[in-house]
Amino acid sequence: MEIRHYQPTDYAGVIALFEDAYAGIDDNFASFEDMEALRLHFPEGQIVAEESGQVVGLILSLYCPYEMFTQPQPMADIYDARAFGRYNADADSLFALEILVRSDQKRKGIGKRLNAALRRTMEQHNLRAFIGVSRIPGYSAVQADMSVETYVQKVLEGTLTDAALSYNCANRMLPRLPVPDYYPPDVDSAGYGVLVVQENLRYQPDAVCCK
After folding, report:
1. In the predicted model, what is the mean pLDDT of residues 170-186?
2. Which of 76, 107, 124, 179, by CA, is between 20 and 30 Å from 191?
3. How far apart are CA 88 and CA 65, in angstroms?
4. Phi, psi values for residue 123, rounded to 5°
5. CB atoms within 10 A of CB 57
6. Cβ within 8 Å of residue 61, ≥6 positions away
7. Residue 89, domain extent
8. What is the phi/psi pair of residue 60, to 5°?
9. What value does the mean pLDDT take over residues 185-207?
């Protein structure tokens, strides 16, 4: 298996991975134009896992200011490929657009290898944190019995397991706060997302980011 930055020749495989991950959910993010916009925005932040000529996992990210995520943001603005460039000016962190592993390739350590490659990128560019929004696909089943805050805390403590949030916690992306109405079509998550943050422990605040 090879972990590397993606290239235009990977775009069809990336879109196929989206279709696998979002089966049953109407998701329109992935397009060849989006893929190329991301590559031009920050090539080192677009990482794929390739095995036997197929894309089996990926991390897509873009520059963002850390302080932007002290409160929930309108996700439609963040995901607008036409506006990626506006995050460059004062960016000190990365925002995770997607972290995906193909459904038939999970539990093989692919996500951990992708995350390790992303951590190296953060260290090389002196970026403060890797920030994302996690699904919580186990929440709808218990929504009547507990608040989303209680659910997130139980997942963090390990007393509950959530397919997405538990994975993120295992990869040091720890929950900060729920994001209501993050993605309403995601009925398994009751429309919620959870802001998750992985800090760069080697970040040097006084050093200049190497963009």
Report:
1. 87
2. 107
3. 8
4. -65, -40
5. 23
6. 42, 45, 46, 94, 95, 96, 97, 118, 130
7. 2-199
8. -115, 135
9. 90
Residues near 54 by beta carbon (within 8 Å), at least 6 away in sequence: 13
Name the percent of the chain lying above pLDDT 90.
Answer: 51
| Structural domain includes residue 183 | yes
Q: Is residue 208 part of a domain?
A: no
For β-strands 93-101 and 129-135, DSSP reports them as parallel
Does the pLDDT at position 209 exceed 60? no
- What is the helix (H) or strand (E) element at residue 145, kind and residue range? none
Phi, psi of 107 (to 5 degrees): 65, 30
Q: Which residues lie below 8 Å from residue 95, measured CB to CB, with a gap of 6+? A: 61, 62, 63, 64, 69, 78, 87, 131, 132
Whole-model pTM over 0.85: no
Closest CA to 98 of 73, 122, 115: 115
Please give the structure tokens belonging to residue 203.
């970040």
Phi, psi of 35 (to 5 degrees): -60, -45
Residue 56 counted as domain residue: yes
pLDDT for residue 97: 84
**Average pLDDT for the chain:** 86
Structural domain tally of the chain? 1
pLDDT in tens, 38-84: 888 889 999 999 999 999 999 999 888 888 776 655 566 556 555 55
In a domain, 207, yes or no: no
- In this structure, what CATH number is given to the domain that contains residue 24? 3.40.630.30
What is the bridge-based pairing of β-strands 54-64 and 2-5? Answer: unpaired
